[in-house]
Amino acid sequence: MSFEWWWITAASNAIMVVIYAVIATIMIRGIQTGHQWRTNPIAVATAAVFVTCTVAHGQHLLHLLPPLAQAEPAQFAAAQAMFNDPALVVWDGFTASVAVWYFLMRSRLVIVYEGAALCEDIAERQRQAALLHEKVVEGLARAERALENGEREAGLRSIEATLEESKTIITTLVGRAGTRAGLGPGDLRRDQPSH
User: Fold this and answer.
1) pTM to 2 decimal places
2) What is the pLDDT of residue 178?
3) 189: DSSP letter
4) Residue extents of the structural domains in the chain
5) What is the b/e burial string over 92-111, where b = at least 16 CB atoms within 10 angstroms of the residue's CB?
6) Cα 176 to Cα 184: distance, rounded to the nearest angstrom
7) Alpha helices in 65-151, H assignment, sequence order
């Protein structure tokens, strides 16, 4: 039996079916474990994309494999001819390579279904920016006014209060202690000193 190009297309689709099914399963388990079906729509939609890709590429395989497809010989020959198309061979081969690459990074999927805060919309970011401005910038402005007016003690109290407020805000935004994203001592230390 001589080599035929449609074998590459079939193998590529088989790779995609397996990888997309595994990724969909990982994501669905994470969403289910975190009870995020309603609270993390981006993760649910991403999992749905992988489920639909699994089914779609599985259907492609069924057109090619006569024992599974139970197709007429003429239908099988037509599917083989279509999957011999050089553009499809190259594109499906490339797509399977991307699927393998994505699969190798699967440990990072946790950020999608456990890091729902990363997918928050712009309104949430604006709320966080307003909170930072209200608590930190205004606190420092109060301290500056007090120091300029010679009220050293009031200025220092305002700086201390602002420092505590900023620590609370950063901990809330990045993650509470004891969580996966929690901060530990020195976690926010710079790699290089500021100038």
Assistant:
1) 0.53
2) 47
3) -
4) 6-119, 122-174
5) beebbeebeeebeeeeebee
6) 10
7) 66-69, 73-83, 86-104, 110-114, 122-132, 138-148
